[in-house]
């Protein structure tokens, strides 16, 4: 059935259309082509999810050779949902950029959309592939595309941020490649399913090699997914990019790498093997540290985009926290948080991008009273901020509630204090922004009501994202149950 080939067709479709963009001299054609291809990819991803729900997971052979010799894609309900989230968020971010990109950069517009298509295609490849070396190829493609997006504005700070990102990404990629070499040397396979079957038989003979491999994968992908304290590239890269690029970099790129780490730990090795080593305890500690320190660093910032960038470090900490708990509920909530944070953080970056475009201000002190001038945009930002803090109904609250239950289930009662402290720290840097923007006579003095609001047509993609944030929170039980049924 042709639907089984949809995951591969989506990747190929995005790659092929990206390389046709240079054929068109007008940037507007590249814009529309990117938006149309990503919209079609979203529809295809939705059809794939529906098919998988009723017919089961997809194993798709790429080429003429069956696994383990040939490349194989594996798309279960988890991969399907993440693919749908990725394509949907990218579509909405590109929709937003069609009205705003020229305000932050005057040239290389067409090249920007080429890079976006390549980036989303490679991220989907990372999510869908069941082959380790194929995953590495997609990692490298996504890294180059992401660095290109960071440096696209061709300013001093962008070049510096891109170089830092590139250097650390090369380090992370090198460690991942070494991990693949080690695992191949003892199993003779690159297919994830076949590696796991072989490791179950022989891991007792190669305990040191298995441990080294686990560490290589964890550090390598930890660098790429901003695990604390390997996050140092993130604030510069995300805060200096165009708003639509920041939404994609923070909302999607980080999530693809951490999802690959989840697949490697729990599908390639399996809980039976990794539980024999202290790795999960280390990930739990680093995740907890990220939850706290990411928020502390966000509190110290004075640039609103850097506040949100450091907030991503804290939120990635939650994902690593769930992985480190090592139980089914913790892992399910790590994946749920990938989905919820992808939508919420994209909403935050796009709403902040709108504020910066309309006011020209990046500093928190200059944004006081902007809620009177841009009430709709600030309301959207507030919903995203409330989710990050953990206000009920929103996905951030759902994640924190279930992370707490997973901690109790795992017997990690002391870590409940980390979740509580992180939530309080989140409130310390999000609530003052909201309060100073909406309230206070001194802050509102001289401000003209709705004087800087963006036209509704430009706010529609951000409003759709906000609606999706609510829906992910409201229908959390169905999503979490689907994730738990499909866990490795």
Please describe what this structure looks like.
By secondary structure, this protein is mainly α. It has a domain at 278-488. The chain has 21 helices and 2 strands. The chain has a two-stranded antiparallel ribbon. β1 and β2 (71-75) form a beta hairpin. It starts with 5 loop residues before the first helix and ends with a helix. The mean pLDDT is 88.
Would you kindly provide a brief summary of this structure?
The chain has about 500 residues and is mainly α.
Mean pLDDT score: 88
The H-and-E topology, N to C, reads as: HHEEHHHHHHHHHHHHHHHHHHH
N- and C-termini, Cα separation: 25 Å
Strand segment tally? 2
| Largest β-sheet summary | 2 strands, antiparallel
Task: List the total number of helices.
Answer: 21
Spatial shape: globular
| Radius of gyration based on Cα positions | 22 Å
Secondary structure class reads mainly alpha
Uncertain runs are none
Helix content: over 70%
β-strand amount:
under 5%
Q: Note the quaternary state here.
A: single chain
Lateral arrangement of strands in the main beta sheet:
1-2
């Amino acid at each position: 059935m042709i639907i089984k080939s949809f995951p591969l067709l989506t990747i190929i479709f995005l790659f092929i259309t990206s390389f046709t963009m240079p054929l068109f001299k007008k940037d507007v054609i590249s814009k529309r082509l990117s938006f149309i291809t990503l919209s079609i990819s979203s529809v295809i991803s939705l059809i794939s999810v529906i098919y998988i729900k009723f017919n089961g997971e997809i194993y798709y052979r790429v080429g003429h050779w069956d696994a383990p010799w040939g490349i194989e894609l594996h798309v279960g309900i988890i991969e399907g949902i993440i693919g749908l989230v990725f394509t949907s968020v990218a579509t909405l971010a590109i929709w937003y950029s069609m009205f705003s990109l020229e305000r932050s950069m005057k040239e290389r517009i067409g090249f920007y959309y080429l890079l976006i298509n390549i980036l989303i295609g490679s991220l989907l490849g990372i999510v869908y592939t069941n082959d380790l070396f194929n995953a590495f190829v997609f990692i490298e493609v996504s890294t180059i595309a992401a660095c290109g997006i960071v440096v696209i504005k061709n300013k001093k700070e962008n070049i510096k941020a891109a170089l830092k990102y590139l250097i650390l990404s090369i380090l992370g990629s090198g460690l991942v490649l070494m991990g693949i070499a080690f695992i191949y040397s003892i199993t003779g396979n690159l297919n994830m399913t076949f590696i796991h079957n072989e490791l179950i038989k022989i891991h007792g003979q190669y305990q040191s090699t298995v441990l080294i491999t686990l560490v290589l994968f964890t550090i390598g992908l930890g660098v790429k997914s901003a695990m604390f304290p390997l996050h140092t590239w993130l604030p510069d890269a995300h805060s200096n990019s165009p708003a639509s690029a920041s939404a994609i970099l923070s909302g999607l790129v980080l999530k693809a790498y951490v999802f690959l780490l989840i697949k490697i730990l729990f599908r390639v090795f399996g809980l039976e093997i990794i539980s024999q080593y202290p790795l999960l305890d280390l990930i739990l500690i680093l995740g907890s540290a990220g939850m706290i320190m990411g928020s502390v660093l966000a509190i110290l910032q004075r640039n609103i985009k850097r506040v949100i960038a450091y907030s991503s470090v804290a939120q990635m900490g939650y994902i690593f926290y769930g992985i480190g708990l090592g139980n089914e509920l913790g892992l399910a909530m790590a994946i749920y948080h990938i989905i919820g944070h992808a939508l919420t953080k994209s909403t935050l970056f796009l709403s902040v991008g709108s504020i910066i475009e309309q006011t020209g201000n990046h500093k928190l002190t200059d944004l006081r009273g902007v809620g009177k001038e841009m009430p709709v945009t600030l309301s959207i930002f507030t919903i995203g901020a409330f989710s990050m803090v953990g206000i009920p109904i929103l996905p951030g609250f759902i994640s924190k509630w279930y992370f707490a239950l997973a901690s109790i289930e795992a017997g990690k009662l002391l870590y409940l204090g980390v979740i509580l402290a992180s939530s309080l720290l989140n409130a310390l840097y999000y609530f003052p922004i909201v309060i100073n923007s909406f309230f206070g006579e001194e802050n509102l003095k001289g401000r003209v009501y709705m004087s800087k609001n963006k036209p509704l047509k430009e706010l529609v993609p951000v409003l759709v994202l906000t609606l999706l944030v609510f829906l992910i929170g409201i229908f959390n039980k169905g999503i979490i149950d689907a994730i738990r049924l499909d866990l490795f």
